[in-house]
Design brief:
The complex is a heterodimer. Chain A is globular, with a radius of gyration of 20 Å. Chain A is built from six helices and eleven strands. Chain A has helices spanning 3-13, 34-44, 58-63, 66-69, 130-133, 150-156, and strands spanning 48-51, 74-76, 102-106, 109-111, 116-120, 136-141, 146-147, 163-168, 173-174, 182-183, 190-195. Chain A is α/β, with parallel strands linked by helices. By secondary structure, chain B is α/β, with parallel strands linked by helices. Chain B contains 22 helices and ten strands. In chain B, the strands form two sheets. A six-stranded parallel beta sheet of chain B has the order 1-10-7-4-2-3, with helices on both faces. A four-stranded mixed beta sheet of chain B has the order 8-5-6-9. In chain B, strand 5 and strand 6 form a beta hairpin. In chain B, 50% of the residues are buried. The chains are: A alpha/beta, B alpha/beta.
């Protein structure tokens, strides 16, 4: 017998009594001011919130971010915001992304309770590694797209076969040495979220 | 055979360090409390998580088939392993067929359970654990002492010394920021040179045929998105039915484990990286047997958050290594003796049965009830030391005979205060090794009650 069938048989022989699936949870914590909550949570997670006054203000908002202003190589996947000295479409091997200082990525929506920003894998095309290999991350999210909690968040996600998607909440971090929080473990050393 | 008490002796002997360890974990437990109390629907979430797990376990075979179908449609290759040996052979075969010589791994307690690293290393593959805590213990040639914080037992000076020797950091340097930066650069070179990445799985979703991996460091994403080959290893119990259920578990997981509202990266892998391959290895290794045991099957609901360890007064004061099993603490003390009751017979006794683990468990596993129930199993198996069994048999004999109990009580009250200390405390009285027998009362509780006016 194949291992697959052996495992499935064993599970069916040992099957517990039937138990029904609970009703889906659709309500969760709500905030009077979700954007304020998002900012507070993001700050605790080691990130920074920047407010932009609409799409036309994004360029000047970016210019005020130190890591962006001083970056030699910038990869942008946000329409209308240019890359700098990086042509993602010309890169075949994701290892060649190493050395990019900043990635500017579009976030679909943000979650106030945990400062997570949802990034569907399609928006990272051609290389999904872009969000983790760069030194600094800037996520651009419409201010109207901040939900309160994760239940609302999952209601919004469209699942596409053979895809990738990620919630990012703040920069890469670790507390593996004596519980001391250190920002910049493997991924982004900073994470700025621009709400516009 | 050395049990928990013997294994913890050295740890306990260093009082300062044991206290420091205790405080470190209590700090994490306090962060958990703060997060939990900030969510008004916390108890409803735990209830939902528990019910989803109970339901899933009642139809696990069906959901695994659904997962396999959808994963295959996503272009993921699904493999099945009955035990650790088969799991290791499958992983090695995948790596060997791609000519992989360097593998980067993110945290996977399952591969620890299967002892994958030595298996691959013996076959010429360099394995690098990339979670900072795991890399630290790997360089020390130790297993993790905690499932979420693998190096929680180490002080910064020890890590500084280790990095000085292994990574060439400055001698005497112990600043966590400096050490983390050194590890970042060391591990980035490993990521750049690896031909494959292996990750664990926090949740597998039947509906989407994908897996979800949570990290704070981003190491799973480096490993799964840079090389063209991604292998994810999961126990069969990691499955949940629907993607919407992720919201319930993700709201609980990091809050319970590290006191964060969510981990930094929550990655949903529903297919291979562009131009690459993704494999999922589904492992039983004794889990289906646990499913058949009514008293203990709820332990399969565990989402490996570590909250029961952080809160356990025994774990905090004895350290992860005193358990001698991949998963320590209360949940490990149920899982380990399932695997080998003789070898891990002391673990269900390494608990005060205070119930704190049950109180914090995000999926409401009745941990302390299971620990108690397992003691009975072990006594029936005669896996408990003779001294303890005889003691229990004697206590049972006396306690079921009220007149004998009264007589015995009276004799002890009269005799014990007159005995020299050397006769009461000794190797024959393991209970008294770190405890004082309370002073004998003048009269029994029964006498006291009878004298009370009714």
């Amino acid at each position: 017998m194949s291992s697959r069938n052996a495992i499935l048989d064993s599970l069916r022989q040992n099957v517990p009594p039937a138990a029904s699936l609970p009703a889906p949870i659709t309500t969760g914590i709500r905030f009077a001011d979700p954007i304020k909550q998002f900012e507070e949570t993001l700050t605790i997670a080691g990130g920074t919130l920047v407010r932009a006054n609409g799409q036309q203000d994004l360029t000047s908002a970016l210019a005020k971010i130190d890591v962006y202003a001083s970056a030699a190589k910038i990869a942008s996947l946000v329409p209308g915001l240019p890359s700098k000295d990086v042509d993602l479409s010309a890169i075949d091997d994701p290892h060649d992304l190493e050395g990019i200082d900043v990635a500017v990525l579009p976030g679909k929506f943000g979650v106030a309770e945990n400062a997570a920003v949802w990034i569907p894998g399609e928006t990272l095309t051609p290389h999904r590694a872009i969000f983790v290999i760069v030194q600094h991350l800037i996520l651009v999210v419409p201010a109207s797209e901040i939900v309160d909690n994760l239940h609302q968040a999952y209601e919004r996600i469209q699942w596409i076969p053979n895809s990738f998607g990620i919630f990012i909440s703040g920069p890469s971090k670790t507390a593996d040495i004596e519980q001391s929080l250190v920002i910049g473990a493997h991924g982004a050393r900073s994470c700025t979220v621009i709400l516009f | 055979m050395t049990g928990h008490a013997e294994k913890s002796a050295a740890f306990v002997a260093n009082e300062d360090r044991a206290h420091w360890h205790d405080q470190s974990l209590w700090f994490v437990r306090s962060k958990r409390d703060k997060q939990a109390s900030g969510i008004p629907e916390w108890e409803a979430l735990r209830e939902a998580a528990s019910a989803i797990k109970t339901h899933t376990l009642s139809r696990l075979a069906d959901y695994l088939e659904e997962f396999e179908r959808n994963a295959t449609a996503n272009g993921i290759q699904v493999h099945w392993a009955r035990d650790a040996a088969e799991h290791n052979a499958i992983v090695h075969q995948i790596l060997a067929s791609h000519g992989v010589t360097h593998l980067v791994k993110s945290k996977s307690m399952l591969t620890e359970e299967c002892h994958l690293n030595p298996y691959l290393e013996a076959r010429g593959i360099e394995v690098t654990d990339t979670d900072l805590g795991e890399r630290i213990v790997q360089l020390r040639k130790e297993p993790p002492s905690h499932i979420v914080m693998p190096a929680i037992h180490l002080k910064r000076e020890e890590i500084g010394e280790l990095f000085h020797i292994e990574l060439g950091t400055e001698k005497g340097a112990s600043d966590p920021k400096y050490l983390t930066e050194a590890a970042r650069s060391h591990l980035r070179s490993k990521f750049m040179g690896a031909q494959a990445g292996l990750t664990g799985v926090n949740f597998a979703v039947a509906e989407t045929g994908g897996v979800v991996v949570c990290t704070n460091e981003g190491n799973a994403d480096m490993g799964a998105s840079l090389p063209r080959l991604h292998i994810a290893c999961m126990g069969i119990e990691k499955l949940i039915p629907r993607a919407a259920h992720l919201s319930v578990f993700l709201r609980l997981l990091a809050r319970s484990g590290t006191g964060q509202p969510i981990t930094g990266y929550t990655s949903h892998f529903n297919g291979p990286v562009r131009g690459g391959e993704m494999h999922v290895v589904v492992v039983d290794n004794g889990r289906s047997r646990i499913l058949g045991q009514e008293t203990f099957r709820r332990s399969l609901g565990c989402i490996r958050c570590g909250a029961c360890m952080n809160t356990c007064p025994v774990y905090r004061r004895s350290g992860g290594y005193s358990y001698g099993y991949t998963v320590p603490g209360p949940i490990g003390s149920i899982l380990a003796p399932q695997r080998d009751p003789e070898k891990y017979a002391s673990l269900p006794f390494a608990s005060s049965l205070c119930g704190s683990c049950t109180d914090v468990c995000p999926v409401k596993i009745d941990l302390h009830h299971q620990l108690l129930a397992f003691r009975k199993v072990l006594v029936d198996l005669k896996a408990v030391p003779l001294q303890k069994r005889l003691g229990m048999a004697f206590a049972g004999f006396v306690l079921s005979r009220p007149s004998l109990y009264r007589l015995g009580g009276g004799l002890l009250r009269a005799i014990v205060p007159r005995l020299p200390r050397g006769l009461i405390y000794g190797s024959w009285n393991p209970w008294g090794i770190q405890r004082e027998i309370p002073p004998m009362p003048q009269q029994s509780f029964r006498d006291l009650i009878q004298k009370e006016p009714s």
